[in-house]
Amino acid sequence: MTTTKNDRPAADAAADLARGLALCTVDADGIALLRLGSADEAMVTLTRERLESLDAILQQLAGDARVRGVLLTGPGPGMFCAGADVGLIQSITRVEDGEAAAVRGRSIFQRLQQLKVPVVAAIEGPCLGGGLELALFCDVRVASDHAATQIGLPEVKLGILPGFGGTQNLSRLVGLPKALDLILNGKLLRGKQALKQGVVDRLVPSAKLLRAAREELDKRIAAGRKAPKRQLRGTAFWLSRTPLRALAVRAAEKALQQGQARFYPAPRAALQCCVDAFTKAEDRGFAAEAKALGEMIVTPVSKGLVHLFFLTERSKRLGKQDGARDLQRALVVGGGVMGAGIAGQLAEKGLRVRLCDVDLAPLARAKGRLQQELKKRLKRGHLAPHEATAIQDRLAVGTDWGQLGDTDLWLEAVVEDLSVKQKLMAEAVARGLPATAVLATNTSSLSVTAMASKLPKPGRVVGIHFFNPPEKMPLVEVIRGRDTDDATVATACRLAVRLGKFPVVTADTAGFLVNRCLAPYLNEAARLLLEGTSAEAIDQAMLDFGMPMGPCRLIDEVGFDVAAKVSAVMQAAFPQRMVPCELFAAMVAAKALGQKTGGGIYGKDGKSPGPGRAVVAQLMQRRGVPPRTASRTELVQRLIYPLVDEAYRCLDEGIVQDERDLDLGLVMGIGFPPFTGGITQFARREGLANITAALDELARAMAPRFQPADGLRRRALAQ
User: Is residue 465 annotated as part of the catalytic site, yes or no?
Assistant: First the structure.
């Protein structure tokens, strides 16, 4: 597969380009330029074909006496290698096949190390997973400061571990503590961070990358040897190559036993492999790593996470549909928590934003909030000072909307009152908002169709529903009103993707997808409280199921006032199934709203009992029914199984168009356990017939609200 000057016909080279293979040329000085693909590829991944072509090239280079050095790089600017083809990971179903794939990949990469001439990697763009593992077998790594440069081993996010030598080489390169931090958390580093961590040896401006890499190569050639292995020093030495490494291991083990980390086996396996790098001979360490990859790649956790990966990629493509436009200037109306967070996100991603509110106080808080967030990112090295300054400069605040002539996105995030939102939209049109601008609402439950009903050009009105806090929550529901046109939906999706979010398109109906499904879940948690099950027991059962937060704690975070409003909307739409629990209104009356008032079910610390416990006790006493504690099994059946039923109702009613929307929306929107692969994947493994039977029994024994939908029954019979 090697191409040298005049060695191969152009037709053969063109065929290689078409198939996405590694390509190599050798110049008159004996320097081999090995590119991992062709510049016309959207993303370079390690397919079987590319790996085999790389193997053939390296074998030829090893036998070519003309070659004095090798420069390994990507096919073009901003491109290196994003890692293994995820389709290959998905296709492996046997442990032995996974282990064999690891051995094969690593043996190909090792050929770089085995070359007698020096090898330098020139890194720009994604250098992830197998891409970094390949670079770690090179003698020197030079990276560019290009904005697209990201370096890391994120395999644990797919339920596997670095199996092409990554755990061994990175651990020996930077030491056990740093390697554990990077590998167990799947961290991605920008160029400056990678240099500081010792993952790369030199950082240069993008325009100088190949020149700097050639300089490093020439140094090694002049020295007549490959680069010597880096020696660990100081703390890195003591915590890696002496028994003191037990301290680093214990700290990592403790972290892996807490929170959601306990549901993921890959980080624990990776931890042992990293330790093996210092306790086993090199060949045995590599063999143990390959075996561990084979074991992890076939787990249900890995298959679930890979499924979610493909769903996120599918979601990103929504922003590439016909008619999608890039928005440049935005006006956000409403300076509360949501409006401020959305405005900050827009400014961060390059839009010029004006945030408006009738009161100066929330606007000052919004600027301060953004400043604090930028300070954190500066401290962590995620931003350069000039980038932080530019973001702040792009966010203006004021009590007046100013001129709307060049605004292409108008978005409101005010109180959940339909008449208020209608009035604001009408005012925007009257004040000269361009006819091409998008009119958006961040409503969580109100009708987008109703908001647009009295406006000219209702096709440009769309719901863009962010979740709280918008800086962290990855989902955006794009709500299509009855008259919303396709181009507006596509543009809203494009904006969400630009913000680093995952859009899910929903129909305009009460609660849309996430709040529609969340309503029965939170209602049932409140009823369980009034029956006598403690908040701690309810929340712990859901944490043990894999949810990131228990429902009682979640209501405190959302606020009982918000829960009451959403419940009223849901009751109006579904009067038989979604009657709000009386606890919501009682907590509002007692002003025990949750965290916003200093406490609800829990205190301000989120752990100790809050003032709402007295409200619960009063309601229980009024009911006059002896308290009872639900079992763990009952808690799962009453909280999770209705969630499954509601999700399928949403699908059958056309709120979303595909089961994949249910999986992505509920994982990203409510934190349904990612390791399950999503709610439909969980339901199939649990057994749709089992879920239906349990709901039928609950409907007979407790209340008709548990009665499963016909769609769930039909699917249960077909499974």
Answer: yes
CATH of domain 514-654+687-718: 1.10.1040.50
Residue with tokens 């109906």: 509
pTM across the whole model: 0.91
Topology, domain 322-507: Rossmann fold (3.40.50)
**Alpha-carbon distance 197 to 174, whole Å?**
7
**Cα 615 to the center of its chain, rounded Å:** 38
* Distance from C-alpha of 79 to C-alpha of 120, rounded to nearest angstrom: 16
Q: What is the topology classification, in CATH, of domain 10-298?
A: 2-enoyl-CoA Hydratase; Chain A, domain 1 (3.90.226)
Catalytic residue among 307, 382, 386, 465: 465
| DSSP line for 487-552 | HHHHHHHHHHHHTT-EEEEEESSTTTTHHHHHHHHHHHHHHHHHHT--HHHHHHHHHHHT-SS-HH
Question: Where are the domains positioned within the chain?
Answer: 10-298, 322-507, 514-654+687-718
Q: Which residues is 81 bridged to in the sheet?
A: 127
Give tens-digit pLDDT for 10-36.
Answer: 445 544 444 568 899 999 999 999 999
pLDDT (tens digit per residue) in 529-568: 999 999 999 999 999 999 999 999 999 998 999 899 889 8
Q: Three-class SS of residue 96?
A: helix
Type of residue found at 155:
E
DSSP helix/strand/coil, 568: helix
- Cβ atoms of residues 240 and 171 within 8 Å: yes
- Write out the DSSP string of 112-126: HHH-SS-EEEEE-SE
Q: Give per-residue burial for 226-235: e unless 16+ CB within 10 Å, then b.
A: bbeeeebeee
8 Å CB contact between 545 and 536: no
Q: How far apart are CA 213 and CA 138, in angstroms?
A: 12
